[in-house]
Amino acid sequence: MSLNTAGKQPHSRGLMAIPAKVLLLVISICAACGMEGLETVNQTNRTQPQTQTSHESSSDAQFEKWQAAAFQQLIDRWLLGEDIDGRVVDLNWAEEARSDVSLGGHQAKVALLDVNGDGQKELAFQTGCATVGNCDLYLYQRESKGVKKLLLAHNVQQFKLIKTKTNGFYDIETSAHASAISGDIAVYKFDGSKYQIYECFLYEYELTGRLDSDGQAITADKPRLTKVDCHIRSSGL
């Protein structure tokens, strides 16, 4: 059997016709160009994420400064003894920050409560509220050198002190709205420095199958509680 090499001979002759020195020079130049291009890509890949991360961190840091300034004015009013208990007050955000603040973040619902029974009321306020009424809850305690943040809880529609105490501070129960008959509950306990989430429940008022005089469904008097892992609560925390 013989191989038909007629179609390959012209290509072989063309390659062999190039002087060896010229061929080596071309190969060297192409190799250098390839390495330079590869290095450029590698440098771009290394620097690009760093640029994005720096920008994102700067933006977050700037918003935190705006938020701290807006909150501080409310805190100062409390420290000066202004009667703001039970009031909804405007938060004075910097003009350049207003477009980044949610609609519910321009105001705060204030409550003063004594969380450790020492006769001094702490400052609690809810802000950043969604349409359904779930908000961020902040709790501050007065100190000799200013204030200390004791709690930041998310998705809080209502909150209250309960009878039990941990490390001298009343436990706090919060609830979040999910639907007309359901939501979730979280209990926070004081760890000696700040409040930490302790246990969580889903609640649901079961339907009785009866209607009231207005034709509305009647629910059970007490909700059914289901204990859940605090990290997988339906409304998050």
Describe this structure in words.
This protein has 237 residues and is α+β, with helices and mostly antiparallel strands. Helix content is 29%, strand content 36%. The protein is built from two helices and twelve strands. The strands form three sheets. Strands 1-2-3-4-5 form a five-stranded antiparallel β-sheet, with helices on one face. A five-stranded antiparallel β-sheet has the order 6-7-8-9-12, with no helix packed on it. The chain has a two-stranded antiparallel sheet with strand order 10-11. Strand 4 and strand 5 form a beta hairpin. The longest helix is centred in the first third of the chain and has 60 residues. The radius of gyration is 33 Å and the shape is globular. The N terminus is likely disordered.
Gist of the model:
This protein is α+β, with helices and mostly antiparallel strands and 237 residues long. The protein has 2 helices and 12 strands.
Ordered list of secondary-structure elements with their pairings:
Blueprint: H1 9-16, H2 20-79, E1 88-90, E2 107-113, E3 122-127, E4 135-143, E5 146-156, E6 158-166, E7 169-177, E8 182-190, E9 195-204, E10 207-211, E11 217-219, E12 224-228
Antiparallel strand pairs: 1-2, 2-3, 3-4, 4-5, 6-7, 7-8, 8-9, 9-12, 10-11
